[in-house]
Design brief:
- This protein has about 230 residues and is an alpha/beta fold.
- It has a single domain, classed as Rossmann fold.
- The strands form two sheets. Strands 3-2-1-4-5-10-9 form a seven-stranded mixed beta sheet, sandwiched between helices.
- The structure holds S-adenosylmethionine.
- The site of S-adenosylmethionine (SAM) has 19 residues, from helix 2, helix 4 and strand 2.
Amino acid sequence: MRLQSVFLFCILSLGQILVNECVESIEDYWDKRFKDEGKIWGELPSRTTQYALDLFRSANVESILIPGSGYGRHTKFFSACGFDVTGIEISSVACNLASGFDPLSRFHNASVLDMAVDTNRYDAICCFNVLHLFRENDRCVFIQQCDNKLNKGGLMFFTVFSEKESTFGKGREVERNTFESRPGRPAHYFTEADLKAHFVKYDAVDMRIVEDPEDHGGKPHTHTLRYICVRA
Ligand SMILES: C[S@@+](CC[C@H](N)C(=O)[O-])C[C@H]1O[C@@H](n2cnc3c(N)ncnc32)[C@H](O)[C@@H]1O
């Protein structure tokens, strides 16, 4: 009986080691995508950036931090509009693409969960489709990291997946409204109340649900996103 338990324990431990080995790191996943697909979402920014631009201009924003900046389609939009822009991005492949595509902005190859590599503070944060890539604890860490990078009264503008996305409910539900299509690759889908709750300690400036068309991978499709803008 005892021998059987030891055997079972060894098999389970080996299984867990194999699962862990098979889970691709986030850096590797994104590096591979950017290597294979280049400027995945095209060179133009999401249409949600127009809302951010209007809000930033009316608040006299001069400097912007863009966490999860990818290959720079949003940094380029804002740097071309005359803002002083910095991007933080985990994929070194994306950072290299971004430096060539948007030479006016600065890029740091680092995780948004620890942005200590950059000691500057900014008038605004603009983050497109990154916050929903984390589980609850990391979403809180990320928002706090962003808060730490803001000048007093700075703005935070986040665009995220809503629960109206066509992929909502697909994969294994690892936390409420968070689904993994593959182990270690969560996507969280925000209801209006949930998004408000994430930013409850800040002053709400604007919030909306928006249709955002994309055309990549040979398949035109439309995302149903939410954005929120708050003042710290
Ligand atoms: C859905 S893509 C959006 C990219 C960019 N915002 C855009 O719309 O072009 C998510 C981005 O977040 C980056 N990312 C994912 N996890 C990250 C992390 N922990 N730290 C920094 N960047 C991360 C990915 O490499 C990828 O560039």
